[in-house]
Specification:
This protein is mostly helical. It is built from 3 helices and no strands. It has helices spanning about 1-30, 40-60, 65-90. Helix 1 (about 1-30) runs parallel beside helix 3. The longest helix is centred in the first third of the chain and has 31 residues, at about 1-30.
């Protein structure tokens, strides 16, 4: 029983830590629309990885994995869209 509780606590701490580590970058990018220092290939790979973890979380029923990666994937897609807009539409 204690092992299960420790597993739950660690899962939610990991979820909170990863989201709080990633969310400030997303919020800053959304507010300022500044994507000069952001790597496009990096965010493409981040979105692919997060999407795969979302699917894995759904299949396995792992809500920590699902919750964390659903939020970070959404942020990655938003930042990717802003980066694409800045790099390909504003410079023309």
């Amino acid at each position: 029983m204690q092992h299960s509780l420790l597993f739950e606590i660690c899962g939610w701490i990991a979820t909170f830590g990863l989201i709080m580590g990633y969310l400030p970058q997303a919020i800053q990018t959304i507010r300022t629309r500044n994507t000069d220092g952001i790597s496009l290939p990096g965010f493409i790979m981040m979105a692919i990885g997060c999407s795969a973890f979302v699917v894995q979380g759904i299949i396995s029923g792992n809500y920590y994995l699902l919750c964390t990666n659903l939020i970070t994937c959404t942020c990655s897609v938003i930042i990717f869209a802003i980066k694409m807009h800045n790099d390909y539409f504003r410079k023309k």
